């Protein structure tokens, strides 16, 4: 028999629904649900078995005045300097804090997730304490049970230890059940056409994730080509990252989604209706696809490390060059550098998302870009 704390109330779960007007968030139990979306907030009551329902508006219609940002597809040129000038400062490429990144259209879902996180954290602390008490009580009871003298001489005390062990075990079981119920279950309702499109998108991402090299571009600066004797226009600092299909721990859902690791900020998860920027259980943000600017392009990179096997060498240059591209003979240890073709991927939003990636497999990124476009068009249509 469970003995739930009076302050505990199991979370009923949340449902996200896509329509031509945008994403709606609804929460409730049984026949009653409260829904928040582009048309405001309303209460819906359904009569089980009768096929009848009643809808009552709770707030006025909301209108989002922000225009949908354009999606950039122009290619970019990107190259590091042959010999970096230390006194020049690199500009960081990073997103704003998670507290300001969430877009207004999905803020209600973000609030519900935060409520679930706080409730879950409280129960998790109590569960951790209960596990320690249960271990201590059980160990003491077993020591008396396995002995011969004390349980026969001090029978009343032995019975008390048995009762304490049982209660501690029941308390731990109770809190384990509460911990499970405190996780906000998320149901994402999408049309069949969008589910199919997202499946293709995820498959293409899985191919992209198998690129030989994936880098997060964490900082950059412009190059003085004359002073630094190079044909490169931009210097970058990059760090290796991994892409894979996975789940974000703040979203309790069956969906397995594209996960982009971030070297200097929160990881990015691409769900069917929204994007999660996850820096931690207490630091995350949600963004709608319509609020994102995503650009794909091909870049020529002066590669001084090992050239990835799935990349193409498209030219040669020198560590120190003249304006015409010939080697500068004034430098005795001048050496030749391969120019490699890479793909560039950027994600930005008006709320402050700013991430840039470099990938070795250009063909995989081009296929991903095609499926990305199809996904965004499908979400925009609401079908």
From TrEMBL:
<feature type="compositionally biased region" description="Basic and acidic residues">
    <location>
        <begin position="63"/>
        <end position="73"/>
    </location>
</feature>
<dbReference type="Pfam" id="PF14020">
    <property type="entry name" value="DUF4236"/>
</dbReference>
<dbReference type="InterPro" id="IPR025330">
    <property type="entry name" value="DUF4236"/>
</dbReference>
<protein>
    <submittedName>
        <fullName>DUF4236 domain-containing protein</fullName>
    </submittedName>
</protein>
<feature type="region of interest" description="Disordered">
    <location>
        <begin position="47"/>
        <end position="84"/>
    </location>
</feature>
<feature type="domain" description="DUF4236">
    <location>
        <begin position="2"/>
        <end position="55"/>
    </location>
</feature>
């Amino acid at each position: 028999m469970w003995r739930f704390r009076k302050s505990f109330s199991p979370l009923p779960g949340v449902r996200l629904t896509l329509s031509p007007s945008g994403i709606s968030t609804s929460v409730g139990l049984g026949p009653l649900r409260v829904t928040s979306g582009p048309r405001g907030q309303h209460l819906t009551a359904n009569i089980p078995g009768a096929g009848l329902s009643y809808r009552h508006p709770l707030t006025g219609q909301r209108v989002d005045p922000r225009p949908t940002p354009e999606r950039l597809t122009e290619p970019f040129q990107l190259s590091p300097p042959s010999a970096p000038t230390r006194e020049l400062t690199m500009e960081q490429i990073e997103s704003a804090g998670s507290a300001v990144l969430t877009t207004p259209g999905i803020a209600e879902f973000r609030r519900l997730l935060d409520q679930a996180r706080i409730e879950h954290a409280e129960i998790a602390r109590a569960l951790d304490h209960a596990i320690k008490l249960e271990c201590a009580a059980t160990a003491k009871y077993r020591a008396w049970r396995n002995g011969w003298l004390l349980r026969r001489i001090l029978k009343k005390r032995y019975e008390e230890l048995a009762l304490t062990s049982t209660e501690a075990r029941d308390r731990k079981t109770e809190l384990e059940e509460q911990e499970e119920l405190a996780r906000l279950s998320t149901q994402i309702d999408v049309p069949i056409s969008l589910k199919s499109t997202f499946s293709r998108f995820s498959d293409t991402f899985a191919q992209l994730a198998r690129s030989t090299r994936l880098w997060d571009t964490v900082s950059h600066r412009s190059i003085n080509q004359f002073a630094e004797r190079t044909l490169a226009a931009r210097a970058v600092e990059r760090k290796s990252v991994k892409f894979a299909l996975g789940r974000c721990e703040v979203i309790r859902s069956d969906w397995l989604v594209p996960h982009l690791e971030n070297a200097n900020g929160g990881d990015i998860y691409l769900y069917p209706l929204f994007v999660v920027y996850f820096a931690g259980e207490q630091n995350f943000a949600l963004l709608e696809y319509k609020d994102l600017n995503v650009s794909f392009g091909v870049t020529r990179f002066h590669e001084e490390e090992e050239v990835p096997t799935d990349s193409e060498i498209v030219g040669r240059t020198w560590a120190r060059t003249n304006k015409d591209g010939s080697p500068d003979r004034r430098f005795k240890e001048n050496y030749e550098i391969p120019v490699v073709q890479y793909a560039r991927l950027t994600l930005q939003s008006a709320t402050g998302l700013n991430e840039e990636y470099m990938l070795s497999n250009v063909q995989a990124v081009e296929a991903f870009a095609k499926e990305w476009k199809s996904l965004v068009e499908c979400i925009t249509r609401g079908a």
